[in-house]
Amino acid sequence: MNFLNIFKIFSSELELVEEKIDDFLKGDLKVLNRVNNYILSSKGKRLRPILLLLTSKILGNDSDIRYKLAAIVELIHTATLVHDDIIDNSEVRRGNPSVNNMFGNQISVLAGDWIYMTCFNLALLERNFDILDILMEVTLKMVEGELLQLDLIGNVDITIDETLEIAKRKTAYLFSTAMKLGVIGGEYDGDLLRKLGEIGINMGLSFQLQDDILDYIADEKNLGKPKMRDLLEGKVTLPLILLLKKRGTDLRGKIKKVMEEKKYHVISRDELLSLLVKEGALEESRNIARNYGEKAISLASTLPENKYRDMLIEIANFIVNRDR
Question: CA-CA distance, 209 to 201, in Å (whole number)?
Fold first, then answer.
């Protein structure tokens, strides 16, 4: 079974999540609704809501709150993308003009803030401290991840540990949150929450590292943004870190120049990609991403055995082998 089949199986439940998202994004201001309607016109994979719904199914939790929580998780993800694009001066998101490109930075910042606050208001209405604790933790971690990344922008000497910490805070913690929130409305304890959180962390790290690889090798149509964009934004990600460990003496200066000039002039995209392949940096990155995926699968295998657990394992396989 592949991801698309799993998506189809959950299509009716995802429709309920979409209805929640549509409802939650309705504001009182015309300008806000214009921005939110534009955001709604470009949907992602809805991977995080699916993880939450799958976790509920695995544990036999059929509480209707899962649809609301799945919508909140997706909206937090959406808000981070809006803010990320502003920080990175990105012009394209999912093959379309980014929100900041369409509406400008000022409106986009406030729209992202509004989505964040809406999420916490919705969570507060549930009067459930576990929900608030989980959401507060992930929001703090994601902001810290953005700050860490900004502090290391343009730093050609960034370490593997530092890039993994960025990936964990910016991406993996939200996967962890989706898994944890899948228990709300059912029976759970601290040990189960920790296990689900660890599955999500490993799955999220696998996802982000694969994202870093795809920035170099994916088809731009599938990627939904310009190829090899990360370096132009000053982001030295895992494949390049591994390459610099092998070819740092003659390559470090060129990489610095690319980031300074924001163009591939001293070294072309094709030349850099050729080096990444020749020196095995891409393959080594894939292996690291795959290892995190395998950790997620190993932990997921200890959850209650049913068809939904098998779907979760299949999603972990999809993540590390995806091309978009």
Answer: 12
Q: CA–CA distance from 64 to each of 10, 53, 57, 166, 293 (Å)?
A: 14, 10, 12, 34, 30
Give rounded-to-5 percent helix, strand, coil for the chain.
75, 0, 25
Give the angle 297-132-53 at the CA atoms, nearest 5°.
40
Neighbours of 68 (CB within 10 A): 23
Domain that holds residue 153: 3-321
The pair of three-digit structure tokens given for residue 62, joined into one six-digit string: 């059929």
Conformation bin of residue 185: beta by default, left when phi > 0, alpha when psi is -120 to 50: left
Do residues 162 and 152 lie in contact, with contact meaning Cβ atoms separated by under 8 Å?
yes
List Cβ neighbours of 139 (8 Å cut-off, separation of 6 or more): 76, 116
Domain count, the chain: 1
**CA distance readout (Å), 159 to 104, 141, 229, 233, 241:** 34, 19, 20, 17, 7
Query: Residue 107, class by beta-carbon neighbours within 10 Å (0-12 exposed, 13-18 middle, 19+ buried)?
Result: middle
pTM beyond 0.85, yes or no: yes
Q: Tell me the average pLDDT across 126-135.
A: 96
Instruction: Give dist(CA 148, CA 153) in Å, integer.
Output: 9
- Three-state DSSP at 228 gives coil
The confidence score (pLDDT) of residue 43 equals 82
User: For 52-109, how does the pLDDT look when each residue is reduced to its tens digit (9 = 90+)?
Assistant: 999 999 999 999 999 999 999 999 999 999 999 999 888 888 889 999 999 999 999 9
Long-range contacts of 65-68 (CB under 8 A, 24+ apart): 65/126, 65/184, 65/185, 66/181, 66/182, 66/184, 66/185, 67/13, 67/16, 67/17, 67/20, 68/20, 68/122, 68/126
Round to whole Å and give the CA distance between 236 and 155: 7
| Residues 6+ away with beta carbon under 8 Å from 18 | none
Written as six digits, the tokens of 8 are 């189809």
